[in-house]
Amino acid sequence: MAVEKTQTGFPGNAKSRAIILILMLVDTTALFASLIISLLLRFEGRPFSFIYDLHLEDHFLSLPLALAIYLCAFSALRLYRYAWRFAGLESLWGVVYANSIGLAGMIVIQSLTDGRILPRSVLIIFWLISIVSVGGVRAMLSLASIAYQNREHRPRHEVKRVVILGADTNAARIIRNEQHNDLGELHDRYSQSHTA
Questions:
Q1: In a shared domain, residues 133 and 159
Q2: Distance CA 159, CA 59 (A)
Q3: Where are the alpha helices (DSSP H) in the chain?
Q4: Which residues make beta-bridge pairs with 46?
Q5: Are 125 and 165 in contact (CB under 8 A)?
Q6: Do both 49 and 121 map to the same domain?
Q7: pTM
């Protein structure tokens, strides 16, 4: 069954769009939490009201624009289109590149709209934490997808486990072909009939 695609490149069915919107909301939360954590780590021991007054209040215009740049970078680097049960190194590099592009965009936006940027130490900490948090979301999605697939599609007989490294959508195609391949079942029947 082929998935219809809209002109945006996202899958066309409502369930896929809802999942993408939820993932964007989770990414937004992860980025916001990463920024707060980076400010708290950098200005350790200072009250949050001090940090807010000094560093966040002046950036109310630029932070939503920077968030839009982040989400566009995530979309452009296909972080919303992967089959997450097959997430690998390519998706990890996508997270790193998208966060780097988003940070560069945030610096440019803050320079243009606010006249100043967050301290460099905060930006570096934010970059690292955002990679870990957004990448962590992808890792949790991968594990959840594997657990769901294992629960829904319990095999009727013993299955050999195979690890496919370095592939994303190609791995999905290989596994799909193997799941629909009746040769394994025919081979089992042939072996059982000749050993009896």
A1: no
A2: 55
A3: 14-42, 48-51, 62-76, 89-113, 120-152, 169-179, 183-195
A4: none
A5: no
A6: yes
A7: 0.66
What's the CA gap between 92 and 188, in Å, rounded?
A: 39
φ and ψ of 55, to 5 deg? -125, -30
Tokens of residue 22, six digits = 């939820």
Is residue 159 domain-shared with residue 148, that is, in the same domain?
Answer: no
- The tokens for 176 are 């799909």
Same domain, 48 and 113: yes
Are 168 and 90 within one domain? no
Q: Are 126 and 189 contained in the same domain? A: no
Residues 110 and 122 sit within 8 Å (Cβ to Cβ): no
Structural domain boundaries enclosing 90: 14-154
Residue 155 identity: P
Q: Are residues 149 and 160 in the same domain?
A: no
Residue 2 lies in a domain: no
What does each of the 196 residues of the chain score in pLDDT, given as a tens digit?
344 444 445 556 787 788 888 889 999 999 999 999 998 898 888 888 888 878 788 888 889 999 999 999 999 988 887 655 566 677 788 889 999 999 999 999 999 998 888 889 999 999 999 999 998 888 887 777 777 777 766 555 555 666 666 556 666 677 667 666 644 554 444 444 445 5
> Which residues are CB-contacts of 65 (< 8 A; sequence separation ≥ 6)?
109, 113
Same domain, yes or no, for 130 and 187?
Answer: no
Q: How far apart are CA 144 and CA 130, in angstroms?
A: 21
